[in-house]
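About this split. The held-out portion is used to measure sequence recovery: a designer receives only the structure tokens and must propose an amino acid at every position. Recovery is the fraction of positions where the proposal matches the reference. Here is one held-out target exactly as it appears in the evaluation file.
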């Protein structure tokens, strides 16, 4: 990819993702960045989020409701989506475990596997407590 011109808006979006543990939607990112850049459009936020994901500087997380979430933490890890409230959370597992899944899958694939993505679904502790 050719060198990209620096963008204060993109830098602000990336900074917000790096500081957030909420896995925000593009709309949530837009509302946050709009405070600093009142004239920014939602389309600009979408384009920059997708660009950051394409460059490997953010992770795009498809969710069951169809709305993508974004994560500034690009280290290998999994996510859990609460089927009750829709919250997306990190599931931090040992990187050796992630590698072992790649190696195990490779046994059934005629080639080389370098990575994978996995989403878990369940009910978060807050939702479980509300039910009780």
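Reference sequence for scoring:
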């Amino acid at each position: 990819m050719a060198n990209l011109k620096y963008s204060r808006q993109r830098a602000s979006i990336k900074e917000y993702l790096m500081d957030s543990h909420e896995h925000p939607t593009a709309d949530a990112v837009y509302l946050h960045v709009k405070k600093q850049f009142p004239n920014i459009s939602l389309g600009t936020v979408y384009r920059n989020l997708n660009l950051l994901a394409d460059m490997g500087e953010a992770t795009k997380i498809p969710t069951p409701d169809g709305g993508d979430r974004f994560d500034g933490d690009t280290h290998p890890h999994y996510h859990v989506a609460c089927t009750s409230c829709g919250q997306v959370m990190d599931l931090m597992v040992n990187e050796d475990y992630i590698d072992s899944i790649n190696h195990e899958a490779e046994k059934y694939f005629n080639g080389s596997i370098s990575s994978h993505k996995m989403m878990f679904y369940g009910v978060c502790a807050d939702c479980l407590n509300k039910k009780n």
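Annotator remark: The radius of gyration is 17 Å.
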